[in-house]
Design goal:
The chain is an alpha/beta fold. The protein has helices spanning 3-15, 89-101, 118-136, 152-161, 174-180, 186-206, 228-242, 268-284, 289-294, 307-314, 328-331, 339-348, 356-362, 366-369, 389-393; strands at residues 30-31, 39-40, 59-62, 107-111, 141-145, 164-166, 215-221, 246-251, 321-322, 373-374.
Length: 403
Amino acid sequence: MDDVLLEKLGILADAAKYDASCASSGAKGRKGGAGGLGSTTGAGICHAYTPDGRCVSLLKILLTNYCLFDCAYCINRRSSNVRRARFSVDEVVALTIGFYKRNCIEGLFLSSGIIRSPDYTMEQMMLVAKTLRQEHGFAGYIHLKTIPEASPWLIEQVGLWADRLSINLELPSDQSLGQLAPEKDGASIRAMMGQVNERITEAKEERRRFSPAGQSTQMIVGADAATDQSVLQTSNTLYQRYGLRRVYYSAFSPIPEASTVLPAKSPPLQRENRLYQADWLLRYYGFTVDEIAEGGENGMLDLGVDPKLAWALKNRHRFPADVNRADRELLLRVPGLGARAVDKIIEARRHTGLRLEDLQRLSTGVKRARPFIITVDHHPNGLIDRLDLRQRLVAPPQQLSLF
């Protein structure tokens, strides 16, 4: 790799860390044929890491960090004083193939700033994926960030070559978008999500290929005054209306080198983590947005405990739950019991009355669940009503040794 390309890679890989990534989960299994390269598995891949230690599994880069837009929260905005670089289509293709052959990656995550025009930028990204697929037989995972202002025809083409498309909603409300990114339009973003969802649905019905791993989006949290409740309500609407696979939450932190003047509203990474946990409850545990919000105050999640435990502590009258009798909905709300553990419990109790030791074989979270459950040989008695129950369940923070 020559020095110029290496320098570009350093700039554009670092610039991409603000794009919430994904794993290849959801893509159908696929292997490169004779003379082809790569493979995709539904289980995802975990081989590459960002400088801050997060596993990204993909070659995650921007096509360029030049941008026509001047979004206040973005380090790559037009007015930002950052080093700029741009890859050509052939350079991205060569990097992807090169890293794959060295067994460093199994796929590509490609985003970009907007250069010349949305159509030109989208066409360049489409050509990367098309070249990898057609000229190199690359069967690995490809995730492309799409540009809402690009023409519908280009989005149609992009969906033919990518495994997943994502369209950034950017912020939870149109009002915030108008204030912080006035050159972007919330209605156009949602219209593009709708178009992509229609094409994905049609492709499934017609058994043809179009973004087989679905679509996702990203929201910046902490750059505006939106509460966690309103963020989750927006996510819930997106899941129901546009069939999104994931909403990725990206914590906003003021970036001095970008001359950002927006303040951070709360500890950003803690808030991001709690939103991901709450989002999981929304999608897989049957919680409503209002139920999740009950666990916090004034529409904000409790940063001290996970949202499920926060809800349980404020709804102690719903517990203890008898694991041999309670319905699935209530068992899913027991802290420490995951969805798979609950399904195993419901199956096992058809054959015998479950004891505490039986639960310990079915779930690793029984210690946390004990105050909230009844089994044949266990009753929490007054434990559920103890004033110090929260302290008993949450380990105090400890200073790790520096030596």
